[in-house]
Design brief:
Elements: H1 3-11, H2 33-36, E1 41-42, H3 43-53, H4 63-71, H5 75-89, E2 93-96, E3 102-105
Antiparallel strand pairs: 1-3, 2-3
Length: about 110
Amino acid sequence: MHRICFHYEFEHDPVDVDDECRSPDCPSRRVRLTQTLAEWTDWDYAALALGRAVGVYQGEDEWASAKGTFWTDNPLGNGLHRALVDLTRAGVLEACDDPDQRFRWSTR
């Protein structure tokens, strides 16, 4: 059985798959970028949210171990930041550089 199928069949809490699950490993948590970036969010937290959305990061409390990824020059951090910029160019996100670089889900 696929991991996702197993989760929805036996672990998803509450039972309705459309309701917010309490498990940090729930596959549905990955598609909540619209909610996570509903307000202006500093670029590093936005990159973490994008990483969660695509499954790179799993839990709610990994900021302490992940922040170095965004504050150093490396392929993962650079790629997530570049993806935020590309999503802005595509009109999916909006960007603001005052006072710091921030992103939010597009209101258009």
